[in-house]
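Possible race condition, two jobs.
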Amino acid sequence: MNRIAFVASETEAAQCALSALTAKYGQCSASEAEVVVALGGDGFMLQTLHDQLSLPRPVYGMNRGTVGFLMNAYDEDNLPARLATTQATRITPLKMRVRGVDGRIEQALAFNEVSLLRETRQAAKLRISVDGKERLTELVCDGVLAATPAGSTAYNLSAHGPILPIGAELIALTPISAFRPRRWRGALLPSSAQIRIEVLEAVKRPVSAVADFHETRDIRHVDVAAAPDMSATLLFDPDHSLDERLIKEQFLV
């Protein structure tokens, strides 16, 4: 892999890395590249995956951000050789379709999660249906999220949701600060599930919906489902695979 398109976040560390790497290996347009190398953190990686959806180019991330769960270690040396030995991981996003209180329709994709969040001091009241069948009549909470396996260690884990193996055909549905019913800890659903989350008292208790970084405010309901016809490919160093990190994360104490 010698035709590389480098992209970088706006941080100083990422921009310095971009200058050093392009001086050493050159710069190729994304349309002509064999691989896209993203320099930044996990947020920038998500942005890059969305930007590259129209091009079937694998993405290799190098951490110039903070957490870097989706990134590899930064190293300027022997990059083509490193790329040649990487392991590929295919990830599939969720598709979010939102209807607003004003009747507007918006759609977006999420490689990490779709989250619904209250907008004011009042708790949200939500109704949850799966495959057309009502499963939870009223959830009083700060919100709820639907996470992919790749995103299960992000916001989902912070909300005490389960970590999913990268190859699992599952969606984690996890409440955020549930007030009633207190004992509901969420659900694991097959990736074929069609999830609808309705906002009760939508005007009095406004709720926003977020797919990765795309936010829609004042929603009436949201439909969430896997988008199996769309995918992105992440590349990882052999000793730093996403599968290994997901397993390792479950044994941290």
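Job #2 (started ~2 s after job #1):
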Amino acid sequence: MIHELIQTPSIACTFLAELRDEIVQKDRMRFRMNLERLGECMAWEVSKYLDYGKKTVTTPLGKAEVNHMESQPVLATIMRAGLPMHQGMMRFFDHADLAFAAAYRQTQPNGEFTIEIDYISTGSIEGRTLILVDPMLATGASMVGVFNRLCAFGTPASVHIVAAISSSKGIADVQKAMPPGTHIWTGAIDEELTSKGYIVPGLGDAGDLAFGSKIS
């Protein structure tokens, strides 16, 4: 299932527009803040698809029956670019277990690249709802690679992929590789993907815009 937030007008569209805007991007703090706020919007949407049960709580004046999340998800984030969105989602899923993965491009002399994953930190994901976060779903290789590594720690009951911007090819490739019923949540889907794996129009390098240029 694919959920594209810009298809329904909301404040999330404003956050996404500012993320794309090359003028607004010059304010690094605002760029990170917009990723955080978009993460909050995504968390709200994802939360509608989790499991809830009835619970009775005691108020100062009586008792009330409320819906209550039955089990907490595992929130897994691809560093470093995913950290601001992770922060926003964590404000909503404040009792979630957290997992982290470090993924990066290894570029060859001919310009081709592979995705290297050299760090995983997680508890068991067996039977859990797994929410996997990365702001850019370009080729989909990072998402799929990290998911496969996480599966060494259990088989999740359900999977939600969260990205600020995705390419149509990346989504198609992720759909083929991920378990049936995986939800893909994205702010917008762009059609073009360059030979170097960058989304067009996209927004540029989310990690560099959030934290500064890196030597690679």
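The first strand starts at residue 2 and ends at 4.
Logs attached separately.
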